[in-house]
Automatic annotation (TrEMBL), chains A, B:
It is found in: Cytoplasm. GO terms for cellular component: cytoplasm. It comes from Symbiodinium necroappetens. Residues 92-202 form the GST C-terminal domain. Residues 5-86 form the GST N-terminal domain. The keyword Phosphoprotein does not apply. SUPFAM superfamilies: GST C-terminal domain-like, Thioredoxin-like. The keyword Phosphoprotein does not apply. PANTHER family: GH16740P-RELATED, PTHR43917. Keywords: Cytoplasm. This is Gstt1 protein.
Amino acid sequence: MAAPSSPVLFTDPTSEPCRSVHWLCKAAGIPLRLRATWLGRGHHRQEAFLRVNPRHQVPALLHGQFALSEAQAIMRYLCELHGVLDPWFGESLEERARISMLLSWHHHAVRKTVMLNHNLPVYYIPFYVGEAKHPRPQKAQVEELRANFAESLQQLEEFIGSGHFLVGGRLTAADIAIAPDLTAMDVDPDVNEILAAFPAVR
Amino acid sequence: MAAPSSPVLFTDPTSEPCRSVHWLCKAAGIPLRLRATWLGRGHHRQEAFLRVNPRHQVPALLHGQFALSEAQAIMRYLCELHGVLDPWFGESLEERARISMLLSWHHHAVRKTVMLNHNLPVYYIPFYVGEAKHPRPQKAQVEELRANFAESLQQLEEFIGSGHFLVGGRLTAADIAIAPDLTAMDVDPDVNEILAAFPAVR
């Protein structure tokens, strides 16, 4: 159970990076106090939250007086704080380099091409704000967005190879950072068709 | 001088992430062999390079049999290899967290909003491939792109504050990763006007 001195995670479970931090803490046994910060209700623009993260993004962490944003940085900080950096961020120089490469790659690959460019405009934003305000893109445009992320998924397929995990044959921060952007596709009725060519990713 | 066993950096000096890695190695005294890999001549699509980085991006590193891509990962790997991780990636838990936050933030802030969304289409691509093939965007569109990166620059301004560096009052990996995407604006005749509101960034 999280002690009153445990770090506080400001989190919206509908946000993939928030889910990454929360999942890592569950898997690594890191105690955390959660503070729901719903994007849909504008909590991230309220003054109380802006004092924690003036850049109005979740997740954000407050540990005593120390405030930190960016999911990857929060994951690394919490693992180091609890002395479990190596199992999650790499046991050897090469493992650490590989995990660090995947975390950097994720920003401009899966996170950008699958989640921000496709999942958000195609299903999430129309659902949250209503199709009247933000119409779902036309079929041809959706096809184009999907063509744009095929390369990211193919690269991810090659990273995974014949195993179940990205690095070291075990769950690491790399899997945890990337997976939520993929499971977010589960709301898509075409998900099986989209992922058919990528058996390792699926 | 770089020994024949030193890591080989496949680099195109016109690429900002390549310049970051090269700059860090110069500043940290890390020996490196350079292999010019010109994007403009398609070297990144040639088979010899694809064996080093199948994802056809520079920079890429080859150290013995170990191949690594992603500038941030290469910087971290080389610093660790040479025992200088702390001065460049943080001397304390909080410094490491702050540098890690800035490196993650950079991907979706300055790198994306200034460089990929604005600098590339507005000056670099029309210059490299010719305006006939890739016309410079119209004035109104350029204005819109500039409005989109104002928030990133404002955030960077706040990170820098009244000092000269982002973290710890000294040059770190965070400055080195971000600076080339800003100095790339120097080709813009409007650069002084754009940066007038951001004295610390300038």
